[in-house]
Amino acid sequence: MSRPKTNSAAAKSSRRLYADDFYAWTQAQAQVLRSHAWDQLDLPNLIEEIEALGKQQRQELRNRLSVLLGHLLKWHYQPEHRSRSWLATVRIQRLDIADLLDDNPSLKPYLAAALDKAYRRGIELAYEETNLPNSTFPAQCPYSLAEALDAQFFPGAPSDLVS
Predict the structure, then answer these.
(1) In the chain, what are the helix, strand and coil shares in percent, each to the nearest 5?
(2) pLDDT tens track for 125-147
(3) Model's pTM, two decimal places?
(4) What is the pLDDT at residue 19?
(5) Which of 16, 73, 92, 134 is deepest in the core (most CB within 10 A)?
(6) Within 10 A of 13 (CB to CB), how many other CB atoms are there?
(7) What is the Cα–Cα distance from 148 to 86, expressed in whole angstroms?
(8) Which residues does 86 contact at the CB level (< 8 Å), separation at least 6?
(9) Nearest of 94, 101, 104 to residue 65 by alpha carbon
(10) In this structure, are residues 74 and 128 in contact, taking their beta carbons and an 8 Å threshold?
(11) Tens digits of per-residue pLDDT, 17-52?
């Protein structure tokens, strides 16, 4: 299969549109793809945007893990402040992470690295929201990936909120 050529005036015009009106550029590129007008594709920017979409999925996973881990830390280290809101946040993050992994199974090998990165952010969230000293929280994540994602796992002392 030969590579489409993209040196047409239309492709150059499309590259200008990319800089001036991103939404219009996306719509124009979709139309070019639908019409198979390969020579009008803005390949450099199209490649960049497709790669960025993949990176967004990884970032979404890290963000959700950060919120989850931050709330697990709060749950663990401030049992006297546990609330249904914290419980709901933990449950929702777990569900959303499961959905993200179902939709993007190729992210599963990235989970261990994502957990490490997310934990650092989770500490910051817990630190800011609990007013506990930063040294309260372990330097390494105290929860395994399996525990963090397990719907039945809640660290620390048992709670009447979890049923």
Answers:
(1) 75, 0, 25
(2) 999 999 999 999 999 999 999 99
(3) 0.81
(4) 85
(5) 73
(6) 13
(7) 14
(8) 71, 74, 75
(9) 94
(10) no
(11) 888 898 999 999 999 999 999 988 899 999 999 999
State the CB neighbour count (10 A cutoff) for residue 117.
Answer: 16
Scanning the structure block, which residue is given the tokens 């499961």?
Answer: 98
Q: How far apart are CA 113 and CA 8, in angstroms?
A: 42
Dist CA 69 CA 117 (whole Å)? 11
Tokens of 36: 């198979």
Burial of 160: CB neighbours in 10 Å, binned 0-12, 13-18, 19+: exposed
Q: Is the pLDDT of residue 5 over 90?
A: no
Which pair of tokens denotes residue 89? 């946040």
Q: Is the alpha carbon torsion for 151, 155, 157, 161 positive or negative?
A: negative
- What are the helix and strand counts (H, E) for the chain? 6, 0
pLDDT tens sequence across 44-86 = 999 999 999 889 999 999 999 999 999 999 999 999 999 999 9
Q: How far is CA 102 from CA 4, 39, 107, in A?
A: 33, 35, 9
